[in-house]
Amino acid sequence: MSSSRRDFLKRSATLAGAFPAASLLPGHSGFWKPKYPPAIVAVYLRGGADFLNMVVPWKDPVYRSIRPGLAIREEDEPVKLDSRWALHPALSALKPIWEAKDFAPVVGAGSPHTTRSHFDAQDFMEFAAPGNRTVRSGWLNRYLTLSASKATNDFRAMATQELLPRSLRGEFPVLAVPTSMDRKKGSALLDRFEEFYGDGMTQEGGVMGERKDDSTGVVQSGKATIETLRRFQEIVGDRKSRKNSAANYPSSRFGQRLEIIARVLKSGEGLEVAGIDIGGWDDHTNQGGVEGRHADRLRDFAISIAAFYEDMGPRMENTSIVVMTEFGRTARENGNNGTDHGHGSGMFVIGGGVKGGKVHGSWRGLGPENLYQGRDVQVTTDFRDVMAECLDGVFGFKPSKGFFPDYKARKVGLY
């Protein structure tokens, strides 16, 4: 464990006042792992993020010639990772996590399907079944369903947004928490729903009366959801939990939503899986290089992730963030200072158990002979391989045959 990682842990532990001295005894990677519940935070960059300008092949001889307006150059001070790769300067907040060996980029990751449709590609990735339109349960929901037990609680999974991501849709019930639910307006809304799901129910004809028959479980489910959301409000509204965080989250939607996820994870309610989206990555025009709209989003993303990493402190040892997008962008920039729908992209995995400080995946270069259909980055790592390793590395859950329809996951070496 590097000094950067130790600094993060010491600072967070001091503020929380709850980091046991015994956990600093020699053990795994030089220290015993804290015994906190494992968790995955799934971040989806919707719109097809330009991974080629996130993890930059800065030594590739073709890179700057095919991206004269977008390319990151030496004078832009990219964050050097190794002799081949660098991060976009806007991702500099992730450098300490890289140095702590808790950050593992995967280049050339993506879907083997040929589609360049946002809707199809997002479905295929989140349902983890490229080309199979019969699968309607998300990969994370399948994990939750298959690993559920009688002891499973209502806080096991949640999404901090209005609509449930496809990855969390399915048989296992998952909360989608609207942005306003942690405020007074959300409490008033719950009061109204509680009246509906309480002793009085509107029956046929508009007459109020007690609902005796709940054979479908609608009333019971509604009551359980309200109770869970009430508890959610208590957690995120707790002043003590806010004071215990020294992390400086940005005021952006993503930053504030990540802070809420951290509070629920630290509350001890048993949250295992959290989902959150960031939209706006479809940069056909005015994408920008070292500065611009793409760089602004990257900066907010990196600062938010770094704040979450610091805020979680020792709990980060058993928490992994997995970041994905439906496809990459064209290798060559277009005539509008942007990029178009591509093929191969990449993924990020961040957490205490990951084999970070190393760029994973196979890279074939940007020469025309190495591009997919002569225009896009090749997919050399199937996104399902990364998903499978995250489930195994975090939860010890090995996807059985059929978990990924018609596909057997291969080893990436992330954990």
Overall number of structural domains = 1
Total strands: 13
Radius of gyration: 22 Å
Strand share of the residues? 5-15%
Order of helices and strands: HEEHEEHEHHEEHEEHHHEHEEEH
List the helices and strands and how they pair.
Elements lengths: L2 H14 L22 E7 L9 E2 L6 H4 L12 E2 L5 E2 L7 H5 L3 E8 L7 H9 L12 H8 L10 E3 L15 E2 L7 H14 L3 E2 L5 E2 L8 H19 L2 H5 L9 H14 L6 E6 L14 H20 L6 E6 L20 E7 L29 E2 H13 L20
Parallel strand pairs: 1-10, 1-11, 5-13, 6-7, 6-10
Antiparallel strand pairs: 2-4, 3-4, 5-12, 8-9, 11-12
Short recap of the structure:
The protein has helices at residues 3-16, 63-66, 95-99, 118-126, 139-146, 184-197, 218-236, 239-243, 253-266, 293-312, 383-395, and strands at residues 39-45, 55-56, 79-80, 86-87, 103-110, 157-159, 175-176, 201-202, 208-209, 273-278, 319-324, 345-351, 381-382. It has 415 residues and is α/β, with parallel strands linked by helices. A hairpin with a 5-residue loop joins strand 3 and strand 4.
Task: Tag the structure with descriptive keywords.
12% strand, 415 residues, 3-stranded antiparallel sheet, 8-stranded mixed sheet, 11 helices, alpha/beta, Alkaline Phosphatase, subunit A
Describe this structure in words.
This protein has 415 residues and is an alpha/beta fold. The protein has a single domain (3-179, 225-395), classed as Alkaline Phosphatase, subunit A. Helix content is 30%, strand content 12%. The protein is built from 11 helices and 13 strands. Strand 8 (201-202) and strand 9 form a beta hairpin. It is globular. The two termini are 15 Å apart. The model is unreliable at 8-34 and 200-211 (pLDDT under 50).
